[in-house]
């Protein structure tokens, strides 16, 4: 029997794309249309975007409303759609405003199966901070986003534990992944593309490139990475792929450290093109302050770029120190530089880590395998 599934998500393609949005698209694209149909209610951030369009296997309904009113307006839109379609499952992407929408729907339609997916990358104290003085009044309601879910999926052990702490033990570990076939078989022309990008950004033949692909926000610790460049040789450049609220501040920081010619701000890059940028680099680094999991790390490993990261959040699920990457101390630019240098100078360590990481990615983080696991949860 074909499952009719309604997704609640604050953001979606084509303009606001992070790990959660990539996961939804990768998973829904792999589930046969004969097995499930997907509708989505999301926020219309840009009035240039249509109110409705089909993206892959998902019918996207965008609502125009201030973000603060999204939970109520999305619930009303979902109720209108449900009157016609009679959904079997509602699926909330994260325990945020989308989670409140799903909760309201579940309260009024208790027989509809409700799945909560935890994709959070911010500190777990973020909801409390965000709600401010309203937290004492909304705390119990926020908890019901978890407790009323028929099942919870989490992208890491870290987030799975959060679900248990919030009172729901029906939690399944369904991580984010990568397109193993396209990346590892180099169907994207990563090596050639990477070489062209090095020329585009003026990287010399004997120069090395450290790359980070991330939103330029405080949690990703990109300021620490820029500072780490002061401890690395002048022949090492930093390629920063992504945009965010800290972009101007980070440019000023790089200029202040005398790194204007060594730090390259590449701006926004569409997710399918990111592997080519990774192919231009020698080391991937992101000294995260918090992290739910991080698709960027997995993509770097799949491409064959050694990874330096901090042991926070969901990162220890896939990064074992000296085996599939190197850990650096949090908030320590000098230690970060030291670990980057190991990969730049020690070919033996580099090869061992790259080989181990690629085997792990192939075995555990292939979207084809992950989509099967998610489909089981949606069907149960």
Automatic annotation (TrEMBL):
Gene Ontology MF terms: glycosyltransferase activity
Pfam families: Glyco_transf_4, Glycos_transf_1
Domain Glycosyl transferase family residues, every copy: 196-358
Signal peptide: none
Domain Glycosyltransferase subfamily 4-like N-terminal: 17-182
PANTHER family: SULFOQUINOVOSYL TRANSFERASE SQD2
Name of the protein in its database record: Glycosyl transferase family 1 domain-containing protein
């Amino acid at each position: 029997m074909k499952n009719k599934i309604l997704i609640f998500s604050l953001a979606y393609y084509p303009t606001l794309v992070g790990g959660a949005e990539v996961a939804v698209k990768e998973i829904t694209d792999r589930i046969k249309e004969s097995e499930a149909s997907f509708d989505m209610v999301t926020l219309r951030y840009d009035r240039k975007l249509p109110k409705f369009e089909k993206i892959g296997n998902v019918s996207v309904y965008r609502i125009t409303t201030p973000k603060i009113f999204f939970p109520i307006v999305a619930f009303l839109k979902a109720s209108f759609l449900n009157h016609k379609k009679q959904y079997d499952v509602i699926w909330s992407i994260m325990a945020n405003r989308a989670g409140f929408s799903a909760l309201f729907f579940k309260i009024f339609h208790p027989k509809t199966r409700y799945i909560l997916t935890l994709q959070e990358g911010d500190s777990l104290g973020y909801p409390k901070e965000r709600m401010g003085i309203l937290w004492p009044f909304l705390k119990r309601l926020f908890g019901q986003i978890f407790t009323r879910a028929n099942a919870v999926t989490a992208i890491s052990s870290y987030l799975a534990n959060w679900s248990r702490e919030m009172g729901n033990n029906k939690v399944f570990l369904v991580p984010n992944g990568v397109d193993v076939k396209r990346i590892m078989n180099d169907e994207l022309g990563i090596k050639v593309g990477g070489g062209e990008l090095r020329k585009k950004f003026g990287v010399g033949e004997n120069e090395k490139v450290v790359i980070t692909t991330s939103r330029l926000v405080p949690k990703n610790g990109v300021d620490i990475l820029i500072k780490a460049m002061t401890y690395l040789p002048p022949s090492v450049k930093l390629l920063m792929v992504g945009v965010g609220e800290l972009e101007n501040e980070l440019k000023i920081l790089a200029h202040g450290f005398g790194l204007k010619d060594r730090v390259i701000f590449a701006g926004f890059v569409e997710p399918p093109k990111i592997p080519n940028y990774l192919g231009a680099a020698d080391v991937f680094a992101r000294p995260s302050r918090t992290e739910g999991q991080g698709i960027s790390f997995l993509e770097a490993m799949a491409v064959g770029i050694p990874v330096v990261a901090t042991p926070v959040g969901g990162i220890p699920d896939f990064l074992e120190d000296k085996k599939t990457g190197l850990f650096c101390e949090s908030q320590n630019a000098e230690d970060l530089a030291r670990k980057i240098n190991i990969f730049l100078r020690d070919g033996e360590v580099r090869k061992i880590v790259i080989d181990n990481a690629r085997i792990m990615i192939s075995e555990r983080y292939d979207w084809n395998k992950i989509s099967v696991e998610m489909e089981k949860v949606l069907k149960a």
